[in-house]
What we know:
By secondary structure, the chain is mainly alpha-helical. Helix content is 81%, strand content 0%. The longest helix has 38 residues, at 172-209.
Amino acid sequence: MSTARVPFRTRRLLDDLARPAVAVLSLGVAVVAWEVAAVVSGVPTILLPAPTEVVAAVRGHRADLARNLAYTAYEIGLGWLAGVATGVAFAGVMAASRRLRLAIYPLLVSIRIVPLVAIAPLLIVVFGATLWTRVLMAAILTFFPVTVATLDGLLSVPSSQLDLLRSVEASTWRRIRYVRLPNALPSVFAGVKIATPLAVEGVLLAEFLASSRGLGHAVLQASADLDTALVFGQVALIVGVGLTLFGLVSGYEHRVRWTDRDDGTASGFGTRAADTAPTLERVRAGALALAALVGLWVVGTVTVPNAAVFLPAPTAVAASILATPGLFVDASVGSLHKLAAGWAVGAGVGGLVGAFVAFAPRTRPVVGPFLVGVRVTPTIVAAPLLLVWFGISFSAATVLIALATFFPVAVAAASGLATLPETHRSLLDSVDAPRRARLVVRLRYGLPTIVAGVKLSLVSGLSGVVIAEWFVANDGLGVLVNQGMRNLQPTLTYAGIACLFALGMTLFGGTTLLQRRLDW
């Protein structure tokens, strides 16, 4: 029977069944290749255990692993739900009101731009080593990409549809429900998929720092015992949780994909940005958000018990930076150098992978599991292995930062380049447009989502810089933050965090300005 005669619903059901089968087959081939490589290369088990050894280690600890897996999955689920719901809600509120957007968005960026790994110990001290603290850390990492991607989608819509609803005096919320949200679905799902591995990373980071149960705590114990096979098994379970959650999101996306006809053709995506606030107004809103953040900091130094031990006043941090400006300038330059190299590699690989998946969608079940699996593996877990392989070097730092940055760009590129409206596809086919022209048109429609992924990759890259400078580098702002923590010098720690904040805001703000100038 020819493919053209197969009903659409039947083809869709076959596709739904084929994708997980192809993904499982791809993973099976990878495991076999891993087994062969481990046996043939003769690499010691402490560096690269074979899959059979990993399976044996998991079987020997299956009862403990089952308990830890259930607890970690529960934490991840709560953090993911809280982060996604909060992100979509915040994006909707900001899309409904320009004034609220100018007031809230800079504050959200200000809070998230600081790598969570640098402030996680403070959160644990303030809120305690509880379940809800771990959920909070997962939600903090999750809500930001959802907010950014959803807001970008809500603000990039066909102006003709908005004008039509305005002409009949439709309310703001009706315009969001019937125009902005349907057109924003590609960006919403891109943000949720980018955020899904971050929920896993947030929970594991919290379990590394303060927990007596869960897979994160178990990984630390196995690492201390040099039981590499068990560590690989635990990481495999972590990847499995991430892949399962990511697969559920992707499956739901496939079912509710932005369609307007029974044959599954895509509806139009945004053609231009609708956010036209003057630059001066934006600067003023950003300054107010920064002032509010400093105000919260000052209040914390007064109200938090024993704050003097771990929370210095902003004036003390500023005085420390001004006393030795050369130290912080050199450290900032070192961090920026590593970030530039790692981001270039990560964004390049991510962009190529995303474009490959977008233009060859049948490869998605093959590429997807490995893409998500690499991202779900926490960067902080990969750092010790890179230290063994590359030592303390710029190359190790570049690889680590690239691992932290490639995923948002890959997901955004794959989603953005697949958002060309079906009407435009038909028009291009009718005039027999050349391949290069088709590529330009698809890129034009995918730019909002792609630039959103770039912004998110910069935030992830900063976290990667801190982790790289903790483990595989001997200079940079992360080193200063770590020295302050180890030597009980909170002023030095917060001075390094303040410089990271300034660096992140500069990069994020510059990318946002570039995004506003682009005309899609």
